[in-house]
Amino acid sequence: VTEPDLRGRHVVVSAGGTREPLDPVRFLGNRSSGKQGYALARTAAARGARVTLVSANAGLPDPAGVDVVRVGTAVQLREAVLKAAADADAVVMAAAVADFRPAVYATGKIKKRDGQDPDPIVLVRNPDILAEISADRARPGQVVVGFAAETDDVLANGRAKLARKGCDLLVVNEVGEARTFGSEENEAVVLGADGSETPVPHGPKEALADTVWDLVVRRLA
Ligand code: C5P
C-alpha cells in the first residue's frame, strides 16, 4: 500500500530529451527515453500529488491522473517548467536538456551543394533551467532535484555539479554504452546538499523514483 505522503502537494517533473532544430526536418537531440521522468510522475501521482509532467519528445503514453505539457526545445521546456513551478512544492528535472542549440534555424531544408564543403554548425548556449530554478525559488522551501549522467568520477563530478547548480538533491548515474538510456532499470546515488549520500541499487526506475520522493517528502516536512 502506497502512503499518500504527497497529498496536497504540487510537483513538477520534466522528462524526455529536448530537440534543437537545424531546419524543418533536422534536429540535434539525445538518447533520453523519458522513462525515468515518467516513472517519477506515476509514482508521485500514486503518492497523492498533483503532478505536472513537462514532456520533451518522449513518445510514451500519458500517465493516468497527470497533467502533461508537451514541449520540443530547451527554450520551450524552460517556459513550461517555470510556469508550472510558480506554485510547486517540488521540481524534478529529469529531462535531458540540450546545453547548446544551433545559432541559426534555416526555414528551408539545408541542401548539399556539388563540390562544396558543408557549412559548419554554430551553436549557442541554452539557458540552464535547473540552475535558474534553484537560484530563484518560486516559493520558500521549494525542493529542487536534478539529474546527472556521468561516465567517470561519478561521485566527485556529482558533488561539483550539485554545488554548481544549487539544487537540493542530485541523482547521479553512471552511463555507458548499454546502460540507463532506454533501459527499464537504473542504478544511482542521490547526493544531498546537506552532504547526504543515498545509494539506490540496480532496479526498476520506479524504485529510484520512490527513493527520490522519500527524500523530497523528508525535506518538505
Ligand atoms: O549540466 P548537466 O546537463 O549535466 O546537468 C543535468 C541536469 O541539469 C539535469 O537535471 C537537467 O535537467 C538540467 N539541465 C537544465 N538545463 C540545461 C541543462 C541541464 O535544467 N540547459
From TrEMBL:
Q: Where is this region: Phosphopantothenate--cysteine ligase?
A: 11-221
**Coiled coil residues, start to end:** none
Q: Which residues form the signal peptide?
A: none
Q: Does the keyword Secreted apply?
A: no
Q: EC number(s)?
A: 4.1.1.36, 6.3.2.5
What detail does the entry give on cofactor binding?
Binds 1 FMN per subunit.
Binding residues annotated for CTP, in chain numbering: 99, 109, 127-130, 147, 161, 165
For activity, the cofactor(s) needed are: Mg(2+); FMN
Residue span, DNA/pantothenate metabolism flavoprotein C-terminal domain:
6-217
Carries keyword Lyase? Answer: yes
What keywords tag this UniProt record?
Decarboxylase, Flavoprotein, FMN, Ligase, Lyase, Magnesium, Metal-binding, Multifunctional enzyme
Q: In which pathway does this enzyme or protein participate?
A: Cofactor biosynthesis; coenzyme A biosynthesis; CoA from (R)-pantothenate: step 3/5; Cofactor biosynthesis; coenzyme A biosynthesis; CoA from (R)-pantothenate: step 2/5
Which reactions are catalysed by this chain? (R)-4'-phosphopantothenate + L-cysteine + CTP = N-[(R)-4-phosphopantothenoyl]-L-cysteine + CMP + diphosphate + H(+); N-[(R)-4-phosphopantothenoyl]-L-cysteine + H(+) = (R)-4'-phosphopantetheine + CO2
What family does the database annotate?
Answer: In the C-terminal section; belongs to the PPC synthetase family. In the N-terminal section; belongs to the HFCD (homo-oligomeric flavin containing Cys decarboxylase) superfamily.
Function field: Catalyzes two steps in the biosynthesis of coenzyme A. In the first step cysteine is conjugated to 4'-phosphopantothenate to form 4-phosphopantothenoylcysteine, in the latter compound is decarboxylated to form 4'-phosphopantotheine. Catalyzes two sequential steps in the biosynthesis of coenzyme A. In the first step cysteine is conjugated to 4'-phosphopantothenate to form 4-phosphopantothenoylcysteine. In the second step the latter compound is decarboxylated to form 4'-phosphopantotheine.
Instruction: Write the protein's name.
Output: Coenzyme A biosynthesis bifunctional protein CoaBC
Organism lineage reads as: Bacteria, Bacillati, Actinomycetota, Actinomycetes, Kitasatosporales
| Gene that encodes the chain | coaBC
